[in-house]
């Protein structure tokens, strides 16, 4: 009897003591790669109790929230508390060709990603798996086909008490439970971190404060553009080469060029063993983005990419076309696991007649444009070719396709109204052998 009375008295004392427990903690965002706080995120806390709707305690736009409560007086019975964060926007922060190499190496088993958070970052389409579809989505973001991931937020967050029973597959069996009263008390005078993952940034070099300056480079490589004069109205192929570099094999290249739309237009892309049309993004006037992966040797003097331009007046290429000076846009990489990174530096080579205007085939602009029923593109072939016409919407989806063999001479390709929705813009691509030409068309609603 005395023992029972003593136990009840002890329980009463413990409960009374717990009623006076005040817990003060900081709830902070933390980037998984380096622990830095993440600016621009919203942090919230909510109480959950069985049978009752959640009660939001706070929702603040900050890197850390100071939180104080009395446990359990401030809460309903059988409660748990959840701390979460959210952030969207700035999707390309930290996303580059190095991530494509890392995702590819993970899929192929060459160099599996080492942490659950890196694997989650690789899941660009939020399918709870890492596949070649994630490579496609990430590549489109780099090329500016996308300005944001269409099926994902730019950041994902996980409370620090989340568990991943299988770190190699964080999508299976992961648990992020709320904090019980006893667990909450553990964080008194301490910090509870909400781990942030930048989607697409598998290598963990994004900037948590939103001022991404590119990766840390091991060395530099010259990107050589020809020192040539463009002739008015004459399509000219720009053969772009890599300078001498200390590695035998390049596993990835990413470049971005700027050009003056008032003086020159890009009329096509030439094919090389390292780049074809699929590696280029031409969706932003005045800018060209390009990316390629796959280990291979690039001989000195061999063009790594070919861009066909046409000037409105006689002008030096160096005055109207240049490498984007942003250090986060142009780089080369060597290796698949221990990757070396090289900054690309623009130089101009001496022209010795190698870079000559090309007039193999000619393509006129689509007319009429805008159009309502159909638009036509005149094509002049210098030899027999199989010609392919593809039309893509601005999301990169193929909307129309045709392929036909043509003899040398003049021909006309048409894009029907059915290829586009009303008041919709699209990109078209014409390929004849290694000749590629691109353009934009707009279908307007027919008022008749």
Characterize the structure shown.
It is a single chain. This protein has 448 residues and is mainly β. It is built from six helices and 26 strands. Helix 2 (97-108) runs antiparallel to helix 4 (132-142). The longest helix has 18 residues, at 2-19. The chain is elongated. Residues 1-19 and 351-359 have low confidence and may be disordered.
Major β-sheet profile: 10 strands, mixed
> Which strand-content bin applies to the residues?
35-45%
Derived structural class:
mainly beta
| Envelope shape | elongated
User: How would you state the average pLDDT, rounded?
Assistant: 85
Q: What's the number of extended β-strand segments?
A: 26
Q: What's the structural blueprint in terms of helices and strands?
A:
Layout: H1 2-19, E1 21-31, E2 42-49, E3 52-61, E4 64-71, E5 79-86, H2 97-108, H3 116-122, H4 132-142, E6 155-159, H5 181-186, E7 190-198, E8 219-227, E9 229-230, E10 236-242, E11 250-259, E12 264-270, E13 280-284, E14 287-296, E15 305-311, E16 315-316, H6 317-320, E17 321-323, E18 331-334, E19 340-350, E20 361-363, E21 374-381, E22 385-393, E23 398-406, E24 409-416, E25 424-432, E26 435-443
Parallel strand pairs: 1-7, 8-19
Antiparallel strand pairs: 1-4, 2-3, 2-5, 6-7, 8-10, 9-16, 10-15, 11-14, 11-17, 11-18, 12-15, 13-14, 18-19, 20-21, 21-24, 22-23, 22-25, 25-26
Helix pairs in contact: 2-4
